[in-house]
Amino acid sequence: MIGIGLVISSNGIPLLADPSTSAVISDSTITSSAEAATDSSTIAGVKAAQWGSNVQLTYSDNSFTFVSYGIPNHARPAEYVLPNPGATVLNASTTYTGADPTKAQNYKFTISLNPTKSAKPTSASLGPIGVMIYGAALFNPYEGDGKSVATLDNFTMNNSKGQDVGFLDSCNGHPTPMMGTYHYHALPTCITQVVDQPDGPSHLIGVAFDGFPIYGDRAMDGSKITATQLDSCNGITSATPEFPNGIYHYVLLDTKDSTSSIRCFSGKSSITIRMPGMQGGPGRSPNEPGGSGMNDPPGMPPQP
């Protein structure tokens, strides 16, 4: 059974729907705008990335389509620290330990292969802001109130068996308690430990919805990149293994502040996803215009 997922309505607009709650992620064209010359194409680098077997990619001249159920193909803990309904300040009195609520999503995102920088950055909204090579989504640094930094709020509690349970897991990710959307708020170290060499450069680990690639925190010489080297969106222009001539890209840091993830888009993106229960209002119901029922993404095997 699919828990929640991104579905395509009859007019071609993708929606994220939960048939048990009628909650949806709405207003998502899920197509990044491309206004660049073809010589800026990122297709070679995107194809060179080590995408997981749980991800399917298809390519056109100007974009690629990412299809996934949103469940990463790395291990997750059996339990997480979860916020009580309505809680915005996370501590032992406003949270509890519970079974991992991760649910399958039906992601089908079409992203530009010709990204360009905008005249000025735009804020990265709550909810998915990019896709990662192991199938899950990237979120900005903040929790549902739009101001609490997830990595700063990270802590552990004892469950009923006296075992330590974390708010974030060892990959700097966790699921949303309502929608079950697994996502990262910082450098996913369990991914970089696989795709990177200990003293080598970071390799491509994702693509933001504006089309610019996402990397870990190592430069081509293996040195660690710090927040002082990045712009306000966590971006930098430099060579990478997939783009040896240099490219603008985002860098995820393993920090306990707002520099841990992308806070704004440097490029142009038409994607706006509003997560139910977060700042910005609820999503659109499937009964409203443009709503739809649940479908599996084409080309993906059915979920158990």
Plain-language structure description:
It is a single chain. The chain is mostly beta strands. It has one domain. The chain contains three helices and 20 strands. The chain has helices spanning 43-48, 150-153, 189-195, and strands spanning 5-8, 14-18, 23-25, 56-59, 63-68, 79-83, 95-99, 107-112, 117-123, 130-132, 137-138, 156-158, 164-166, 173-175, 182-184, 204-208, 213-215, 235-238, 247-251, 264-267. The strands form six sheets. It has an eight-stranded mixed sheet with strand order 14-15-11-10-16-17-19-18. It has a three-stranded antiparallel sheet with strand order 1-2-3, with no helix packed on it. A hairpin with a 4-residue loop joins strand 2 (14-18) and strand 3. The longest helix is centred in the middle third of the chain and has 7 residues, at 189-195. The chain is globular and about 55 Å long. The relative contact order is 0.23. The model is unreliable at 1-39 and 276-304 (pLDDT under 50).
Tell me the layout of helices and strands.
Blueprint: E1 5-8, E2 14-18, E3 23-25, H1 43-48, E4 56-59, E5 63-68, E6 79-83, E7 95-99, E8 107-112, E9 117-123, E10 130-132, E11 137-138, H2 150-153, E12 156-158, E13 164-166, E14 173-175, E15 182-184, H3 189-195, E16 204-208, E17 213-215, E18 235-238, E19 247-251, E20 264-267
